[in-house]
Amino acid sequence: MDHTIVHFEIPADQPERAAKFYREMFGWNINRWENPGGMEYWMVETVPTDAEGRPVRQGVNGGLMPRMFPGQAPVNYIAVADLDESVAKAERLGAKVLMGRTPVPGMGWFAQLADTEGNVIAVWQTDMSAGVEGAGVEQADGAAT
Fold this sequence. Notes:
The protein is α+β, with helices and mostly antiparallel strands. Helices cover 15% and strands 34% of the residues. It has two domains: 8-72, 2,3-Dihydroxybiphenyl 1,2-Dioxygenase, domain 1 (Roll); 80-145, Roll (2,3-Dihydroxybiphenyl 1,2-Dioxygenase, domain 1). It has an eight-stranded mixed sheet, with helices on one face.
């Protein structure tokens, strides 16, 4: 696993206004995502993607969402092979877990951490069975499906 940044999220007080800014400023393709959880979220495409949604050239795509609390900053998501091992390692190195293992149904798992300097980062493990009923994987609340 090369631990590259695979996703970013930009919080916004007015997501539609922010989407318009980034579209006009950088020419990014930004579209509202109809996700299973109903969360207000826009997918941000800074580079074109293939049929599976992977960038076809160097670059990272991300998301835009309503700001959840004052001062919320953008977050980078870093690919890891094993989410639980990575969270445990981060804690040993002095990080604090802000949001534990959380599924993005049909895509993968993430956890958000505060590094030793208080910066928020996220670790991401791709797993198409994440959050899918009957897949036999553990959910964020610790219950098995």
